[in-house]
Specification:
Elements lengths: L5 E5 L4 H11 L4 E6 L12 E5 L5 H8 L4 E4 L7 H6 L1 H21 L4 E5 L27 H21 L2 E7 L1 E3 L12 H10 L5 E4 L5 E6 H14 L5 E4 L3 E4 H12 L5 E4 L8 E2 L4 H7 L7 H14 L1
Parallel strand pairs: 1-2, 1-4, 2-3, 4-5, 5-6, 6-10, 7-9, 8-12, 9-13
Antiparallel strand pairs: 9-11
Helix pairs in contact: 1-7, 2-4, 4-5, 6-8, 6-10
């Protein structure tokens, strides 16, 4: 990307979006950050223009893409497993509309390159080797099938635009991402932010869904943002690429690590009546390592400390 490039980031007030915008602010880019209804923690800067708007409105998407060189489309209707189960239409419908609108608008406004942020949720349940070519080898998990299918459809749409029009598009599938600027409310939070909120409020007993033996991989949001930039620059050929390679840990050990950082000693209770997700979900990130030289640099301990410090400062 040229030093005077005009860059558009949707979902800029989100977890990864905040880190991505901050990476661009270190350089002489002209950045437009699109936010919706989330609290914005974005800084004030002369080369940063923050616009609040609705990406389900195609005319708004067309307007913000005008004159832009590079688009990073991160916006999504977020939600926990519970929200996915209870409000599937409220998650899938706006996500599909935003994805289609932004891709079409970017194409019609002749954007040079476009990055689509997909999700590890596209992979089938209990898939042992989560390499990029295995995503369509079976149906996605029932517990979050609406967002999974929305992401699959958007990936296919990106590939269709690349095939028919030659648009340069990068598709990334980040692993479980955490960090500063995450959501910490019960309805929408993911596991690390939920654990941190409970630990810092000294919740006792400390309840973990399932038996705690579930294995997950976690990548700090700044590392994912760096991977997205690499993908746009070097892998804009509409082939999905996993952004993983982070720390692999059991959920019960993750809880103990966060509890230790919060300096208290609650009783840990495992609630097997709650959904647990899959027993192991770890991305195969060989392609990102080999083709992008993408290796996350933030350890889980360091990332957790940074996240807790940010949350406490707010």
């Amino acid at each position: 990307m040229e030093t005077d490039s005009k860059i558009l980031v949707t979902g800029a007030s989100g977890l990864i979006g905040n880190h991505l915008v901050r990476q661009f602010l270190k350089k002489n880019f002209q950045i437009t950050a699109i936010v919706h209804n989330r609290t914005s923690y974005l800084p004030t800067a002369k080369n940063l223009h923050i616009i609040r708007g609705d990406l389900t409105d195609y005319n708004f998407c067309k307007k913000i893409c005008k004159g832009v060189d590079y688009v990073f489309h991160l916006a999504v209707e977020t939600g926990s497993i519970t929200k996915n189960a209870n409000h599937p239409a409220s998650i899938m419908t706006p996500t599909v509309l935003m994805d289609f609108n932004m891709l079409k608008a970017s194409h019609e406004e002749d954007v040079k390159k476009y990055l689509y942020s997909s999700c590890a949720c596209v992979y089938p349940a209990e898939l042992e080797n989560m390499s990029e070519d295995k995503a369509w080898s079976g149906p996605p998990p029932k517990m979050h099938e609406t967002i999974s299918w929305a992401k699959r459809i958007a990936e296919l749409q990106c590939q269709s635009y690349h095939k028919e029009y030659g648009d340069e598009i990068a598709i990334v599938r980040p692993s479980n991402t955490y960090g500063s600027y995450d959501i910490f409310d019960i309805e929408n939070s993911h596991v690390i932010s939920a654990f941190i909120e409970k630990a810092l409020s000294k919740t006792d007993p400390f309840i973990i869904w399932g038996n705690g033996e579930q294995i997950r991989e976690f990548v700090y949001a700044k590392d994912v943002a760096d991977g997205m930039i690499l993908a746009l620059e070097h892998y804009a050929k509409a082939e999905p690429i996993n952004l993983g390679g982070g720390t692999v840990i059991k959920i019960k050990d993750l809880a103990k690590k966060i509890i230790s950082l919060a300096r208290y000693n609650p009783k840990i209770v495992f609630d097997n009546t709650k959904p647990t997700g899959h027993m192991k979900r770890v991305l195969n990130s060989t392609k990102a390592r080999n083709d992008l030289n993408f290796i996350p640099s933030t350890s889980l301990d360091e990332g957790l400390r940074k996240t807790i410090e940010w949350y406490q400062s707010g």
